[in-house]
Amino acid sequence: VDRVADSPLGTWVKRVKKVGALGVSIELTAEAKKHWPESMTVFGELLSGLETPWLLAVDELPLFILKLLRLDDSGKRAVSFLHNLRELRQNQPGVRWLLAGSIGLDTVTGRYNMADTINDLRLTTLGPFSVDSADDFLQALARSYGLDLHQDVRSHILSRLQWLLPYYIQLVFSELLDVDNRPIRVTDIDALFEALLQPANKNYFDYWRQRLRESLGTPDDTFATTLLNMACQEPRGTRQAVLRGALGRQIRDPEQRDQRLRYLLDVLVNDGYLVENGERYQFHFPLLREYWKRRVAP
Q1: Mean pLDDT score of the chain, rounded to an integer?
Q2: By CB distance 3.0 to 4.6 Å, which of 5, 117, 189, 242 could disulfide with 82?
Q3: Whole-prediction pTM value?
């Protein structure tokens, strides 16, 4: 911590604090934003002097790149930043990088023909909890709140969710705390899921719709919505041939249509909307499918 504050980078550091036993959080000043190429160079020099391996985590990098693109629609600012970041990664063999985001970084760079700026990275997706881990998580939450949550109730929650992401497990659990019945019954879970799909709670799912425009832009966000509108109609999903036909109403040229279909299906699978199941594409998350069918699809 002291070394960061005492380095040339220290003039642009607003706050440095330890996080846990080994972690460090660095908050930069607004002035650092005006001199980011210089600050990245100084940061690289600081990293080169590290004597032990480090892991650097950068969250929501794709959203930051999209913001740079809105500030400079030529793309030069975003490309320059990504190239500088790539050079920083390659010059620091003792540092491992974790670049995370709710939108795929490959989606953003692919859309703006910047894929060469991340070709040193290995793309991976963080999957959901296993059933056992999700059940352990629910039990730990229940114990922390003194809530009696029987196994049949926990199993029903996980069965309804299917896609066992920690966020949605926590969301359901937070709603459980407002259930009047004690002990909580399986029928209460069904009522809770129905309540989650009401208009008052659409903010829990609306981001999935909104981020299509952020990650894809116009008109691809409209094309993607068309595909999702078709896929949500059946729990088993929709055949690719049917999706191609739906997109054909908006893209008449067969070659262009097939090219956009392949690209959009890859994005929708990578970003967690759909999963390929045999010849069909179905919603990865049943609760999102039901929301989409009720609140988005015509």
Answers
A1: 87
A2: 117
A3: 0.78
